[in-house]
Amino acid sequence: MTDPVILSFDTSGPHCAAALLRGETVLAHRFEEMARGQAERLFPLLEEVLAEGQASWRDLTAIGVGIGPGNFTGIRISVSAARGLALSLDIPAIGVSTLEAQRFGTDGVVVSSVQAGRSGLYVEVFDGGGQTPLHCTLDSLPAMRDGVQPTCIGAMAAEIADKYAGRTANPAYPLAISIARVAGPRLALDNPPPAPLYLKAADAAPSRDAPPVILS
């Protein structure tokens, strides 16, 4: 069986990230920090990643996309792009949360966190249970089972580790690579179209510019 070729990308934060994988092999990877301009940069970046990996759009088996939580506009940019590509190429697009991608490759109980603007954190505890991602602050972190000292990854990891008497760690892989590796095993599933993962209302008034359209 031929290894799947997955193009993954994420614009949920102040960055534009993309990767191309064939099975477990990373063919190309880019991560560019940017506070704005992701909408203009994303497709040129994807073209560069495909060229570096010596692949074309028609070689792709699937799209992996970061669905947040994170920046509202950034999430909509990448999710809209993924859904459009999936439709035009007739391949699946698989959404992966930033929190899950961050903890991919780290064993044990993991607390994954992303900065939530001025108003706190997005947090998910991965402990084999049914806990869901939430919006909270350092003072309202979810409860931890007695005796568990988790690994904390992401925004304010050191402060979170202090609260839980845990330890900190960096993500095992760059974000876009993790997204592709999480998406790969899901190719055999009946995946719904990716949708933005919003855990709180927007901090600011909507932009006057028309946002990217999320196809139904």
How many angstroms does the end-to-end distance come to?
32 Å
Query: What strand order characterises the main sheet?
Result: 3-2-1-4-5
Helix-strand category: alpha/beta
Unreliable runs: 204-208
Number of domains: 2
Helices, by number, come to 5
- What's the number of extended β-strand segments? 10
Radius of gyration: 17 Å
Can you write the helix and strand succession as a string? Answer: EEEHEHEHEEEEHEH
General description of the model:
- The protein has 216 residues and is of the alpha/beta class.
- The chain folds into 2 domains: 5-98 and 173-188, Nucleotidyltransferase, domain 5, CATH 3.30.420.40; 105-168, no CATH class.
- It is 26% helix and 25% strand.
- The protein has 5 helices and 10 strands.
- Strands 3-2-1-4-5 form a 5-stranded mixed beta sheet, sandwiched between helices. Strands 8-7-6-9-10 form a 5-stranded mixed beta sheet.
- The longest helix has 18 residues, at 72-89.
- It is globular, with a radius of gyration of 17 Å.
- Residues 204-208 have low confidence and may be disordered.
Blueprint (SSEs and pairs):
Elements: E1 5-10, E2 15-22, E3 25-33, H1 38-52, E4 62-66, H2 72-89, E5 93-96, H3 98-103, E6 110-115, E7 121-126, E8 134-136, E9 151-154, H4 157-164, E10 167-168, H5 175-183
Parallel strand pairs: 1-4, 4-5, 6-9, 9-10
Antiparallel strand pairs: 1-2, 2-3, 6-7, 7-8
